[in-house]
Amino acid sequence: MSQKIVITLLTDFGIEDGYVASLKGVILGLCPEAALVDISHSVPPQDVRAGAFLLSTVYRDFPKGTIHLAVVDPGVGTERRGLALQTGSYQFVGPDNGLFSLVIEGKQDLQAYSLENPVYWRPEVSNTFHGRDIFAPVAAHLACGVPIDLLGPSCTPIVADWVSPSKNETGLRGEVIYIDHFGNCITNVTAEHIEGFIDRKQCIVRVAQRMIPGISKTYAEAAEGEAGEVLALVGSSGHLEIAVNRGSAAKNLKIPVGEPIIIYKQQL
């Protein structure tokens, strides 16, 4: 018995309307044996950074050969490209607007193609719904075995400037790129940026006019587990996040996406 090809879906479409169903209907019409898995359809509208973060945290958890269809596309209908990407054992389809930045950053085996071959699109393409008319059929054709290089010419995809923090002799400067369900404020600073450069116990994390001493290991570590205490830690995603023990950092500290964060190497 042949293994089903998994196609995941990540969008900002919500679930109240029929947009997600349209994607699934198009895919199953072309490749009925595909296994469809929803990552999330609750990405904040037009929030490319949030979509990029969510995709980066889960794509490796799927079987090799999985196709990840991601559509957070505020530039739909403009001259922005559509992309098909291959890196490692996974393929990705969606708009070229930075949505795949965290997936492709630093990848040496990346293959990227601009979606310019209409043979693999729907016959009629709406100016406002490329998810249904271009990206979904492309993902379905890939699942059915179409070689990725038939989809269009090779290209160099966009990597957004918010992907990595800046570094100098005093420490790191980054920003909040995602706020999760619990109100944890997740940044573009990763464990890899910290290790060997910053002492987690001796540093100071500054965000929203708060100075947080050190980087904790768990949510309960701050003030011996006292509820309401603010802390910084590296979460399960591998990213530094600002949290409030048993509370919401985003609400308590009024931290939005894009809020700057500075990690000083030593206490001031």
From TrEMBL:
Keyword annotations from UniProtKB, A to Z: S-adenosyl-L-methionine
UniProt keyword Transit peptide present: no
Gene3D superfamilies xrefs: Bacterial fluorinating enzyme like, S-adenosyl-l-methionine hydroxide adenosyltransferase, N-terminal
One Pfam family linked to the record: SAM_HAT_C
Positions of the S-adenosyl-l-methionine hydroxide adenosyltransferase N-terminal domain: 7-152
Domain S-adenosyl-l-methionine hydroxide adenosyltransferase C-terminal residue range list: 174-261
Keyword Cell membrane: no
Family: Belongs to the SAM hydrolase / SAM-dependent halogenase family.
Protein name as catalogued: SAM-dependent chlorinase/fluorinase
Natural source organism: Desulforhabdus amnigena
